[in-house]
Each structure stands twice: as C-alpha cells, then as structure tokens.
Specification:
By secondary structure, this protein is mainly alpha-helical. It has 10 helices and 5 strands, in the order E-E-H-H-E-H-H-H-E-E-H-H-H-H-H.
C-alpha cells in the first residue's frame, strides 16, 4: 500500500448484521430482549449470593464474579449495536473502537480465567474435602479473582497498545457488529506480523492453558468420584459440578464454533452471526444453567423475588 493512501483516521464503520430496513425492528427487539434478560438474570445471581448467607462460599463467590463479568461483556458490545440499529448509522469513533476492543478482551479473558478458578474450586471440594475450608479460604479466593482481573487487564492492554502503533488506510469498514481485534488488524495497511505473533501466542497461552487446567481438574474429579462405592455418593459429588461443566461446555464450544466458522467460511456476516453465541447467548444462559439445577440458588432467588418462583 502506498504511503499516500494512509490517513489519520477518526472513525470506523461497523457493518452489523443487515442493511434491510424491514429487518431492523426485529433485530433491535431481539437483541434488546436478550440483553435485558442477560443483565436481569446475572444481577439476580449477584443479589442472591450477597443476601443469602448460605451462599457465602467460594463457589458462589466465583459465580457472582462470573455473573458480573458476563454483564460487562454484553454491555461492551450490545448497547452500541442497538444504538446503531435504532439510529440507522454504523459509525464508531477510533477511540471508541479501541475502548470497546479493550473491554471486550478484558471481560472475555476474565470469563475464561474465572471458569478455570471455579474448576479448581470443585477439584479441591471433591478431591480434598477435609482440607477444602482451610485451602479455599477467603484470602485465597480474593487473590485468585484479583489475579484473573490482573492477567486479563494486562492481556487486553498489550493488544490495545500494539493496535495503537498500526496505520490504517482508507478502507475502514469492519465486517462485524463490534470492534473485533482480528478484524481491526486486517484493516491495517502496515506490517502486522508482530501483532499476529502476539495474538497467536496469547491465544495459545491464555486460552489453551486455562482449558488444560479445567481438563486436568475434572480428570481428577472423575477419578475421585469413580472410587466412591455408593451410587448416591457419586451422584451427590458429581451434581455439584454439572452446572459448571455445562457453562464450560457452552463457553468453549461457542468460541470453537466461531473459530471454525471463520476458518471454513469467508462470509463476514456468517462470522458475525456466529459471534452472537459467545457475546450474547452464553452470558444470557449462564444464570439459567446455575439456577435450574441448584436447590440452594433456587431458594436464594425465591427470597430475592419475594417467593414468586
């Protein structure tokens, strides 16, 4: 690309999902409903864990942090998308785009680390029950959450600083409904080799690493449950992990689905649609997964809602 085609940009254009005017009210209503359910559902989980003393345990402390992260993850992308649909405009400022990208990476990474910490908590509870309360003390729980926040913040800051050094050309359309890191890097007209290397390295280290930790934790859990002679004992031990396993499965499968869809299909709209799974649907479903199979959470939610469930 010739230097003359490089410009000091002030804004990007987000494609969104469709330019069909007749489809816009449907999309607005659909995504607004999903967003409200996500915020309301996760707020209920947070309120329940705060107000019910029976839920003042490490598992529910981590769950409340996951719910907060899910609210923030959806709030990073959905409100701007709703404004664009309602106003029939696709513009996002350069500063706004980088800010959105930073917080999306922050809360997406935080979800990843919190799920890993929750797997470690279940590992300690089932494999080392006699030492659980000593090891998983409040200080360690807070430290694990702070560590998750710190690593996620540094990871997103690294990518944001590297994007700041890129120059962009006159083609400023992002084929997505939010400022995705990969899409922004593809728009650059300067060398992005270092950005690509850091992206792949971080994805491998901060993605594969926590996932390996979850797999290891559950392999030990399954081994411990297997040696329990009582069927009722096995069910009781494993039932405490079902909700978390469901969320882990949903989180990683949706991300894998987005990755595979982007690899198999060059269709930008298809990739944006697939991204809805982990940006909106997963945060929306998490409260239902943790409340439907959990008697303690059901009881706490009933108190919060005044006995209406």
């Amino acid at each position: 690309m010739e230097p003359g085609n490089v410009t000091q940009i002030s804004e990007f254009l987000l494609w969104g999902f469709s330019e069909d005017p007749e489809l816009q009210p449907f999309l607005f209503g659909l995504f607004l409903s999903m967003y409200l359910v996500t915020v309301f559902g996760n707020l209920l989980i947070i309120l329940a864990t705060i107000t019910d003393s029976h839920l003042h345990t490490p598992m529910y402390f981590f769950l409340s942090n996951l719910s907060f992260s899910d609210i923030c993850l959806s709030s990073t992308t959905v409100p701007k998308m709703l404004v664009n649909i309602q106003m029939q405009r696709r513009v996002i400022t350069y500063a706004g785009c980088l800010t959105q990208m930073y917080f999306f990476l922050l809360f997406g990474g935080l979800d990843n680390f919190l799920l890993t910490v929750m797997a470690y908590d279940r590992f300690m509870a089932i494999c080392h029950p006699l030492h659980y309360t000593v090891i998983m003390n409040p200080q360690l729980c807070v430290l694990l959450v702070l560590l998750s926040w710190t690593v996620s913040a540094l990871h997103s800051l690294l990518h944001s600083l590297m994007v700041l050094h890129l120059s962009f050309c006159t083609h400023l359309e992002i084929p997505h409904f939010f400022c995705d890191l990969d899409q922004i890097i593809q728009l650059a007209c300067t060398d992005t080799f270092l950005n690509d290397i850091v992206t792949y390295f971080a994805a491998g280290l901060l993605g594969f690493g926590p996932f390996t930790g979850i797999i290891y934790s559950y392999s030990k859990i399954f081994s411990s449950v297997h040696v329990i002679s009582s069927v009722q004992g096995k069910y009781k031990a494993f039932s405490t992990c079902v909700s978390h396993l469901s969320v882990v499965f949903l989180f990683y499968c949706t991300i894998l689905g987005v990755y595979l869809s982007s690899t198999a299909s060059p269709n930008a709209h298809a990739n944006a649609t697939a991204s809805v799974m982990y940006t909106m649907i997963t945060p929306m479903l998490n409260p239902f997964i943790y409340s439907l199979r959990n008697k303690e959470m059901k009881g706490a939610l009933k108190k919060v809602l005044g006995g209406k469930i």
